[in-house]
Amino acid sequence: MAKKGWEGAVLKLYRAKDYTFTVLDAEPVTDHFQRVRVSGGGLLAHHELHPTMWVRLWFDHPEGKAHQRAFTLVDADVAADEFTLEFAIHDGVASRWALAAQPGDTIEASLQGSALTLPSPAPSAYVIAGDIASLPAINSLLDAIGDVDAHVYLEWVHESDRTLPVRSRSRDRVTWVARERSGEALVEAVTKAPGEIGVDASSLYGWAACDAVSTRAITKVFKETYGLPKGSIKTLGYWQP
């Protein structure tokens, strides 16, 4: 395993916990989406499972320094300490690892900063925005929010993206938005959402995770256009465009 560098040092300062995951199985879902089932090396014995729970995986890089990427735990079996990690495939070290993963392979992981507390009292509805990379987290959130409507805006690039399963309920609305103008189409869709939903924007809860530029723009929409307080917003930039 290559050295984790300054990122690893910072995580240690924040008391991140390290684990070694072992691959149990791997399978393609589409030509641009891969699932890898792993055992958690004690992760779920030491930490309570919560919505959108995620870990940082450490991948060897040709330059010699380990690179970390974040992944949501999917379909976790707490008793067995097993869960699935899902990968949006592109040209990168994480995708190459996922495509080559075989049972018995191992990978280092760190857990820090994963907590999510659902709002109480519940909002009038959730506005959720993301892309294929954040779909696992979105599905985890949809599983957890109970009897509250969700309006989901999902950005797609490949035609096969729109065949991926979204764990929406009959009361939810899912809108697929083609990635156009470097993500501006998704930002525009989120901006228009309150009018389409027909509710007071300030009563909503906003959640977004996509590329860093779009995430910043959507965060601004939640704050300035919707008028949401900090406690009604959860956003995270997943990748640099």
Automatic annotation (TrEMBL):
What is this protein's name?
FAD-binding FR-type domain-containing protein
Instruction: Kindly give the PANTHER family that the UniProt entry links to this protein.
Output: FERRIC REDUCTASE, NADPH-DEPENDENT (PTHR30157), NADPH-DEPENDENT FERRIC-CHELATE REDUCTASE (PTHR30157:SF0)
Domain FAD-binding FR-type residue range list:
16-119
Q: Which Pfam families match?
A: FAD_binding_9, SIP
Molecular-function GO term, any one: oxidoreductase activity
